[in-house]
Amino acid sequence: MATIGSAKATLVNKIDTLTASATAKDTIYLAKALKENTTHHSFTFQGAWAATTAYALDDVVTTSGKTYICIVAHTSGASFAVGSNWSLMAEKGTNGTDGTDLTSTLTTAGDVVYKGASALTRLAKGTASQVLTMNTGATAPEWADAAGGGLQSIQVLTVGSGTYTRPAGVTKALVYVTGAGGGGGGGNAVNYSGSGGGGGGTAIKFITVGATESYTVGSAGAGGSSGGGSGGTGGTSSFGSHCSATGGSYGVSNTCEPNGGAGGVGSSGDVNVYGNGGDTGHRGSDACYGQSGNGGGSYWGGGSAQGSYDAAASAYQGKDYGGGGDGGFHVQAGNSGGNGVIVVYQYA
Length: 348
Known about the structure:
By secondary structure, the chain is mainly beta. It has helices at 6-13, 24-38; strands at residues 44-48, 54-55, 59-63, 66-70, 74-75, 86-91, 112-115, 120-123, 130-134, 141-145, 151-157, 160-165, 172-178, 202-208, 212-217, 237-239, 243-245, 266-267, 271-273, 341-347. A five-stranded antiparallel sheet has the order 11-20-13-14-19, with no helix packed on it. Helix 1 (6-13) packs across helix 2. The relative contact order is 0.14.
């Protein structure tokens, strides 16, 4: 119903008391107020349109997602027709996406669908403990191992060659690669003692570790034979293409006070460490028979100590990874060095 001004409202309230003595002005106000009242309509909602139904002016119905108002009273036919009886009031908009258009893209539970450069793109599900992140080009999502997990475990790789396999959840590694120790020189007859073999070098590097990495751990250099034989050089150790470390050089004999073998050295590491050189063998008199050289130490500790006058070589073999073997005393053979090692500290 239209809103009527205060003067008109007063007039309408007095309709029942108006008499023939009402002024012309009052009559005009009354007529105008009544006219305004009758030109405003109220709607009657009838729900869904139905056939063979009598509809009055201003009845409102819905059909086929649209809403209509009756503008001419009529009885409907068998099917809805706008014609001159109905006027459109409202209609639904375009349907939004309900996900059914992704059906052909999703193939496996856990897949992720994202908007690619020109179309929807499927990213296959990741593995356990992975998280969804953005690639380095910031062009698409990708799965990555969760960061910040800290040290997960340690692997120790010993002598020989093989393939390192990264454990699940590991992405980084701090590797210590140590070459093998050199063998000590053999003692020569009465008074020439062998010099010690050098310790293996070490490379230390923090890397993003691959799913697999080839590796080699160097073998110990053999001890020199009795009677003055030279020792063997320690083998080189390496971890993939990341870093490597050479073994210690061999000890010698057959000379007066022979020099000890040089230590190996790490290469391509964040830190490259030299192994200690072996000690010099000493000539002695016929009474004391000289003194053999100690083996050089590696990152992991010292090489083997001097043997006693007639001790078997194996009793003084270098015990630490990469340690050099000591020289032979008197007529004893030199001691072999220690094998190399690779220690892998594994991080998430």
